[in-house]
Amino acid sequence: MKVIPTTGGDKVSRRTSFLRGRVVFPVFVGVALILDSLIIGAPADAQSDVIVPVAGNDTQGLPTSGQPGSSQSIGQPTDVAVDSQGNVYFVDPENSEVDFVSASTGLLTVLAGNGTSGAPDSGEVGTGQEIDDPYSLTVDSHGNVFFVDADNDEIDELTAPTINADGVVTSGDVLNVLADSGNGVDSPNDIAVDSSGNVFFSNSGNDTIEEISAANDYATTTVVAGTGTEGSPTSGEAGTSQEIGEPYHLVVDSSGNLYFADEENYEVDELTAPVINGSGDVTGGDILTALVGDGTSGGSTTPGISGSGQEIYWPLSVAVDSSGNVYFVDSEESEVGAVIELSAPQYNGEGQLIGGDILNILAGGGSGDEPTTGQTGYGVDIFDPYSVAVDSSGNVYFTDEKYYQVEELSPGSYTDGVLTGGDILTVLADTGAPNLPYYNSTDIAVTGGGNVYITDLSLDNDTYYVDEIQSEAAPIAFDSVTYASGGATGTLPTQNPVVDLGTFTVASGAGLTNPGYTFAGWSDGTSTYQPGATYTVGSNPVTLTAVWKAVSLTPVTYANGGGSGTLPTQASVQAGTSITLASGAGLTNPGYTFAGWSDGTSTYQPGATYTVGSNPVTLTAVWKAVSSTPSHLSDTVYFALDSSRLTPADLASLSAFAAKVKNANATNLNVVGYADSTGTEPQNHALSLARARAVAAALTADLAKLGVTTVSIHAVGGGVSTTYANSALNRRATVTS
């Protein structure tokens, strides 16, 4: 969540005092939703607790997707969340990114942003899109991520990403702009999502809290508290009719009730779950109640009575447990700081506060000594606590700026505001923590079971982390995974290191070749795994070696089936391979035409796809006898003026015609010669007969070469032809069967 600096007063200097003048905007996460916390391991005690980075190293910079989060540079994380699988999400405004760390592999993936500030394109994949200063985020039960894109004045969604074992986004992760300045978004701070997927955000520039309704497919943005004018609200009235100050941190409980810190009015307020219709109008609920504060800063709180009307100084972080008890930090209660509990408020049917809301001071009120494990929280010296969270057992966690500590308070028992038991303080982390010294946190998150995560600013070297507080001094271990070719050549797949007991997806062997063998999987020395299988890493490096199986080839041959000529060839192939059948163009068989190839079962045409089995294949030419029924054939030869001589082209044409005569089994041919009208009638008759006899002689010779001697050829002179206007077309001899 982002803090928007205000003009006047000294709030900004108090917010940034721990940075010694550097402006960093703190973020606070409660546990109204368990999704707003991280799950790995609960702390045991102050002596055994260590801090282990989930993301970040000793250098600020841009992370690389697909690498272990603990090895990557990051910028300045300000808010963290976790889904039901334990995957970690955080915003990094320094790099303008939303990042993800896988619970199973420990690999970091950039979900949105590219290190450059800019405005995103709605409806496009978030990876590589420019965003600008994301400061707060949350995750719903389906893995959809919602975040405040502060400098773009946007509320954005990333649809649930699917991320493979290499840390690569394979689907989802679509960035949708749900609301922007066109919807009145102005300097948004914090964001929360309820169990129905409704999104709430504090719109500090307008002094409002607004809801984006899931039931309306996120198409409506509705003001649920505030009028757009800064002022003090009246308890028991509709939130939409009440002026509020600068809404800051907000949380939502399992019933959809909202709790928020109103900095300008020095209050912690509750808003009963709003009911929104399809048009985006509030039709029910939405009653605002000041649980603590009276609009005036200062004074001192009195334990054991209602918080309503009691003065507080500066409420920052808010949390709510499963019973409805509310917790907040008052950063300068009595000029020191306090962690305060308000018992679950009770309301009548009109939304009027009628019971509960009893104020108890859990920590603070002392002076002079650094808190130590085993003390009672009430009366201990703390200063400017920044964030608070609560687990399902009622243990409360908070950060202490003055002493650079993360502290836990066990549940306390109270009678009329007097502590009668519990409320024992445990220091979970401080500057002397083993493995990674803790310096300061802008955020604390805790699961229902008490597992603690923080954002961590190390003041000595100006670097940042997202940390887990563990009970054992054991850093997250990664194992190398390599692929070996097994005697093949080509490109081997690669795999990033995998966290102990993590999983990854086994790669394909598509980049490898091994002549005479087929790829059969990958072996780790014990078992063989197929591409796409899930492999679970133990605690040792893994080598996966390609397994190869000798190929059995099936011979494929062509047979002429009684024809003659050149047969096509086909190399032997692996069983299951499809081949394209050759043509029969190189084969002849007089009296027959080529009709395809037979494998003994079916006949296939040239160009067909044939799948080879494991038995040898012979494809035999199929021939179809030419019909013996005589055909009517004809041909025409043209002559030069006053000539009966056949040219080479004429002879070739007649040879082809002779072949047709043979194939048609013709028995009689009639040849009629013609002349044009140039000469005398006797001359023309004689010339036409000579032309007919020349053609008959050529045909007789061609048929003899083809072994045909039974055809009777009759040649006659037809005299003058005037069939054609062109004389050249009349100088001809025509053959018909």
A few lines on this structure:
With 737 residues, the protein is mainly β. The chain is built from 4 helices and 62 strands.
Characterization of the model:
The protein has 737 residues and is mostly beta strands. The longest helix is centred in the C-terminal third of the chain and has 25 residues. Strand 9 and strand 10 form a beta hairpin. The radius of gyration is 46 Å and the shape is elongated. It is 7% helix and 39% strand. A 5-stranded antiparallel β-sheet has the order 2-6-5-4-3, with no helix packed on it. Strands 7-13-10-9-8 form a 5-stranded antiparallel β-sheet, with no helix packed on it. Strands 18-24-21-20-19 form a 5-stranded antiparallel β-sheet, with no helix packed on it. Helix 2 packs across helix 3.
